Amino acid sequence: MNRTLPSAFSLGLARTGIELKEFFRLRETVVFTFAFPVILLFVFGSVFDDELAPGVSFTQYFAAGMIASGIVLSSFQTLAIGIAVERDDGTLKRLRGTPMPPLAYFLGKVGLVLVTGLVQAAVLLVVGALLFGLELPTDPMRWLRFAWVFGLGAAAGTVLGIAYSSLARSSKSAAAVVSPVVIVLQFISGVFFVFTELPGWMQTLGSVFPLRWLAQGMRSVFLPEEFAAAEVSGSWQLGLTALILTAWLVIGTLLALRTFRWQRPGSR
């Protein structure tokens, strides 16, 4: 009797459920992913209350940046560290020996990023709106903009995280290899500081990487339209944002295809 084998998509959905269960069992990871951005929002919101423009406080500016930063934490950082750990402890090698198609594994990671990224964004939006005056858009087009900025950012962060996971030689070094990169990007991308107040060379360097464009894209969603005049170019540069995030998505995909390994170098 012939049986229809489950598709890679259905296996990917099943794998997403497994990934989420494993993720929420790790208290440290959950706290860092969800609580750390909220803690930073409380700290910066309590210390800095300057008004950057009429109707726009630094806290609102920072909240938009933290939503962008949360996408990077949920995608790039989570996968770069998590996959390195799975490679080091032999999980990837065992999965590769099962009938599960490799695509299902990666779809599971995509599902993990989407769920955790959306939950984190929702938490930051609720805290920002209730405590720090972040205005939630009423225009559906703003939420459509949020969707494509979030989607492109999460996709680029996912493939870059998969590719970057190969740099860690072991699970013990994974966090040390990944976390400093994320912290530096937050400083030079307009998350912790107003981007236009950074030194020129830092703005140029930050503009190479996707977080700078993610942050500006999120500001275009949650800050008044008039604030666009305060950006570097005097506009939101949405077309350029889409182009650069797509370019990083392509670059990350090519790097992931070239560098991803199912087991540690030298292992059998």
UniProtKB/TrEMBL annotation:
It is a multi-pass membrane protein. Keywords: Antibiotic resistance, Cell membrane, Membrane, Transmembrane, Transmembrane helix, Transport. It is found in: Cell membrane; Membrane. Pfam families: ABC2_membrane. InterPro entries: ABC2_TM (IPR013525), ABC2_TM_bact-type (IPR047817), ABC_2_transport (IPR000412), Nod_factor_ABC_transporter (IPR051784). The keyword Transport applies. It comes from the Bacteria. Residues 28-263 form the ABC transmembrane type-2 domain. PROSITE patterns: ABC_TM2 (PS51012). The chain crosses the membrane at residues 30-48, 60-85, 106-134, 146-167, 174-195, 236-257. Belongs to the ABC-2 integral membrane protein family. This is Transport permease protein.
